[in-house]
Specification:
The protein is an alpha/beta fold. It contains 8 helices and 7 strands; from the N terminus they run βαβαβαβαβαβαααβ. The protein is globular, with a radius of gyration of 17 Å. The model has no long low-confidence stretch (mean pLDDT 96).
């Protein structure tokens, strides 16, 4: 399956590495005009260079702390101005709050939940004009109790629930809202790459619980995000699709 997003404008909020990076590259390779933000300028510059090296349309990048309301709204408005409008918003940032303490909860609320809510509120006027779509990245952690990452799991569950609520609200405006719930995804420098090196017992236990016998790749999640943003998914809204190789089934 190939996607054609020529003429479409896409913002990826939180996309310099891992799943977000794969989503940025997927849309860029499909012909979209893309803007992406992240906290680190160096990783954004590297991604922009990679896109330019493939001869694709120039990537609009800007550093942004998505947990900062003013900074996020400023970035989103500048990105929409740069792109000349908006067709797709992807909310991909996560603080990955692990510890069941004030810091873990507050970071998850501000980045994962309120970052998603605020981005939607800022971009909805533009998306109503185009009949656009929002893709929220949740997690399979939202589907069951978690002793290792309680804040992350609970807040991702809130993101999935809000996805459905916003979808119903926006349906009269022909704006679709969907989510993706990845399982354990491995990429260089990511959480599971670090676990493989520093906590092999946990890594092997998680991998052994996936029916396909391996962890997923960012590209396998990105493909689903592109599908949900495409016209092939034009009658899908309010859904959060699990992308985990059967991990939640085991």
């Amino acid at each position: 399956m190939t996607f054609d997003f020529h003429g479409r404008r896409v913002i990826v909020a939180g996309g310099s590495k891992g799943i977000g990076r794969a989503i940025v590259l997927g849309f860029a390779r499909a012909g979209a005009s893309v803007s992406v933000c992240a906290r680190g300028q160096a990783s954004l510059d590297a991604l922009a260079e990679e896109v330019a090296g493939e001869g694709l349309a120039a990537l609009h990048v800007a550093p942004c702390d998505i947990g900062d309301k003013t900074a996020l709204e400023t970035y989103l408005q500048s990105a929409m101005d740069e792109l000349g409008g908006l067709d797709v918003l992807v909310n991909c940032a996560s603080a990955f709050g692990r510890e069941d303490n004030e810091e873990g909860w507050l970071s998850s609320v501000e980045v994962d939940l309120m970052g998603t809510v605020r981005a939607g509120h800022t971009c909805l006027p533009a998306l109503k004009e185009t009949g656009g779509t929002i893709i929220n990245i949740a997690s399979i952690a939202a589907l069951h109790a978690s002793t290792r990452t309680a804040p992350y799991a609970a807040i991702k569950a809130a993101v999935a629930h809000y996805t459905g609520s916003l979808a119903v609200t926006m349906a009269p405006h022909k704006v679709r809202v969907n989510g993706v719930a990845p399982g354990s995804i491995e990429f260089p420098g990511g959480v599971w790459d670090q676990a493989r090196q520093n906590n092999p017992e946990l890594y092997q236990r998680i991998r052994g619980g996936i029916p396909f016998g391996r962890l997923g790749t960012p590209e396998e999640v990105a493909d689903v995000a592109l599908f949900l943003a495409s016209d092939m998914a034009r009658w899908i809204t309010g859904q959060t699709l699990v992308v985990d190789g059967g991990q939640v089934l085991s």
